[in-house]
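Module 6 notes. Inverse folding takes a fixed backbone as the condition and produces residue identities as the prediction. Think of it as a translation problem where the source language is geometry and the target language is the twenty amino acids. Below is one complete input and output pair. Work through it position by position during the lab.
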C-alpha cells in the first residue's frame, strides 16, 4: 500500500475516516478506481503504439484513444476529487505487467495492441461502465458512467475493426 493510500486508512487518520471520503460507498470508490486504472492502461498502451507501430490505422486509433481518454480522465479525476476521493494515477500492477509484456513485442505488436488494448480493455471498460450506470448510488458518478458509456462502445467497435484489419495484414 502506497503512502497516499495509507494516509486514507482509518488507522492513519487517528481511527476516524475523513468526512469527505464518507460521501462515497465502496462500490462507487471501486468504480472510480477501476475506471481510472483502465483509462491509464489504454493511454499508456496507446502511447506505446504511437512509438512502436508503423501502421497508420494503428497510429490513428492510438491517437484517438489518447485524446479521448485524456479528456475523460480529467473529468473522472475532477469528479472523484469533488467527492473527496483521490483516483489512481497509473494502471494497476496487473495492467502494468500487461503493458510491459506488450512493450517487449516487436513482431506482432500491432495485433497484440489491437487485441489487448483495443478490444479486451474496451470490453472490460464497457462492462464496468454498464454496471456502474445501473448500480452506482452516487447520482453524479452514475451520470458520468451513463454519459461516458457511448464513447467507450464506439471505441470498442473501432477496436474490433482495427483488430480485423491488423489480423488480415499479419497473415
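Target side of the pair, the amino acids:
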Amino acid at each position: 500500500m502506497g503512502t497516499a493510500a495509507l494516509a486514507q486508512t482509518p488507522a492513519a487518520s487517528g481511527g476516524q475516516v475523513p468526512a469527505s471520503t464518507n460521501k462515497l460507498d465502496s462500490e462507487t470508490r471501486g468504480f472510480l478506481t477501476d475506471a481510472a486504472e483502465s483509462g491509464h492502461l489504454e493511454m499508456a498502451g496507446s502511447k506505446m503504439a504511437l512509438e512502436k507501430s508503423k501502421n497508420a490505422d494503428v497510429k490513428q486509433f492510438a491517437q484517438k484513444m489518447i485524446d479521448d481518454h485524456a479528456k475523460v480522465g480529467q473529468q473522472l479525476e475532477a469528479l472523484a476529487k469533488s467527492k473527496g476521493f483521490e483516483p489512481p494515477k497509473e494502471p494497476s500492477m496487473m495492467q502494468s505487467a500487461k503493458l510491459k509484456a506488450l512493450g517487449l513485442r516487436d513482431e506482432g505488436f500491432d495485433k497484440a495492441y489491437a487485441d489487448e488494448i483495443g478490444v479486451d480493455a474496451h470490453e472490460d471498460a464497457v462492462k464496468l461502465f454498464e454496471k456502474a450506470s445501473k448500480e452506482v448510488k452516487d447520482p453524479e458518478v452514475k451520470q458520468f458512467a451513463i454519459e461516458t458509456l457511448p464513447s467507450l462502445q464506439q471505441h470498442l467497435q473501432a477496436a474490433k475493426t482495427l483488430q480485423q484489419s491488423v489480423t488480415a495484414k499479419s497473415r
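Reference fact for the lab report: Helices lie at 3-7, 26-52, 56-82, 93-103, 109-135, 139-169.
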